[in-house]
Amino acid sequence: MSRFSRQFPFAAYFACCALFFAGFFAGVCVAQEEEPTPVAQPVPEKEAVPSISDLHVQGLRSLEKTDLMAASDAADKLLMHYENDPRAVRLAGDLFLRSGKIRSAAKQFERYIEMIPADKPDLWQYGIALALSERYDDGRKLFELHRAANPNDVENAAWHFLCVAKMANIDQAKKLVLPAPGDTRVPMNEIRRLLIDGNEQRVLDAVKQLTEGSSAHETATFYANLYLGLYADAVGNQTKAMRLMRDATTYKQVNYMADIARVYLSELEAKEKATPVAK
């Protein structure tokens, strides 16, 4: 053994190295153990888009509860998910009209007509939207067109009468009452005659012929109030029109025209509030 070997403490040196590397690797292992293992995150499932029918039903159920905002939201969703689907566009127009968004309804009906022009004569709902948004000449034309598709409908004649009275005058409206033979619903025949001669009592007498408390009597009373109210509006009797339209809104059944009565009343009330009070 050399003199250097005898003088240098090799055993101690190797012992120190062993301790150093042992500590180093222990630290590495601890660091590796402390590093969190990444957890795979679940991929969220894409929310299913409701069908056109489902959204329409949602809107109808909202109308049954008189939740007009929810019904309008259903219409918005129809357009959001099915903007260029003709069926969705038409149903959205219906929901807008029944929830009181008349101008939005007219816009969607017009889009639908652009998509399917041949359906325009069938779209009496569009005519009502035009009448209630005071586009009377456009409404008149639509109801005249609708008569080709439904020649026996007195309601069509009544809305046409309103449009002509508003855009011209009541005498002109009486002269241009549309024919509507064969509408057997009580009191539709009497309502059409009302448009010509103004005899309101005949309408009320026809309703009285039905058994009070029956569903037929209830329905006839609703239509009498609705169209007597429309007639009063056409001749310029705003107060009477609102009273009769309020009576129409007490109808218990939920259907398209019952909703129209409520929207019509809302428009009449809005016009009254907007009319300056005479000093």
Commentary on this structure:
With about 280 residues, the chain is mostly helical. The protein is about 70% helix and about 0% strand. The protein has 15 helices and no strands. It has helices spanning about 5, 10-35, 50-65, 70-80, 85-100, 100-115, 125-130, 135-150, 155-165, 170-175, 190-195, 200-210, 215-235, 240-250, 255-275. Helix 12 runs antiparallel to helix 13. The longest helix is centred in the N-terminal third of the chain and has 25 residues, at about 10-35. The chain is globular, with a radius of gyration of 37 Å. The chain starts with a helix and ends in a 5-residue tail after the last helix.
Defining key terms:
mainly alpha; 15 helices; 0% strand; disordered N terminus
Give the low-pLDDT segments. 1-34
Biggest β-sheet, characterized? none
Helix content: over 70%
Tell me the strand percentage band: under 5%
Shape: globular
Query: Termini separation (Å)?
Result: 131 Å
CA-atom Rg in angstroms: 37 Å
Mean pLDDT: 89
From N to C, what is the helix and strand string? HHHHHHHHHHHHHHH
Secondary-structure class: mainly alpha
The total count of strands amounts to: 0
Helix count, per DSSP?
15
